[in-house]
Amino acid sequence: MDKNKLPVKKDMAMDELDFAMLAFLQQDGRTSFTVIAEKLNVSVGTVRTRFNRLLEEGILSIIGRVDPAKVGFHCYAHIAVFVRPATLKETVAKKIARLPEVSFLAGTSGDYDLEVDVMCRDNDHLQTFINKVAAIEGVHQTKTAIYFKVYKYAPPDLDLLKAE
């Protein structure tokens, strides 16, 4: 361990201030610490310290989110993946996760084993992607639904975590 880096407690509890900071950053990730501190009536140092802790804990990541259609992704799809034998589920998931088209991947309960959302340039690109997935050992079957139009693409609303 780097002797200059303090150990970080895992799963530290978040408080109202942490959530308020995250809400500002979700609206505009470039919001300055000074602006956040003024709006939340705390010091800039407090915001900086909390921000760094949220980064170190992996609660917050700094990314540039683009509008997929405006940069050339015109084919979105949801793919249900059936894995046989079931013991290969983790192996298949790890291989699919490495494919750059994948924007979401989860294990599921129910009829299929993995749920995959992808962004592709066009239908030909999607077909190539599906063929790659189908060639993975353990993939028994796939079912694809193309999204014709995305009406909402957003991060989670943190207000949903507040007790009613």
Automatic annotation (TrEMBL):
The keyword Zinc does not apply. SUPFAM superfamilies: Dimeric alpha+beta barrel (SSF54909), Winged helix' DNA-binding domain (SSF46785). SMART domains: HTH_ASNC. The keyword Kinase does not apply. Residues 14-74 form the HTH asnC-type domain. PANTHER family: LEUCINE-RESPONSIVE REGULATORY PROTEIN (PTHR30154), TRANSCRIPTIONAL REGULATOR AZLB (PTHR30154:SF34). GO terms for cellular component: cytosol. Keywords: DNA-binding, Transcription, Transcription regulation. This is Transcriptional regulator, AsnC family. Pfam families: AsnC_trans_reg, HTH_24. Gene3D superfamilies: 3.30.70.920, Winged helix-like DNA-binding domain superfamily/Winged helix DNA-binding domain. CDD domains: HTH_ARSR. It comes from Chitinophaga costaii. It comes from the Bacteria. One of its GO terms (biological process) is response to amino acid. One of its GO terms (molecular function) is sequence-specific DNA binding.
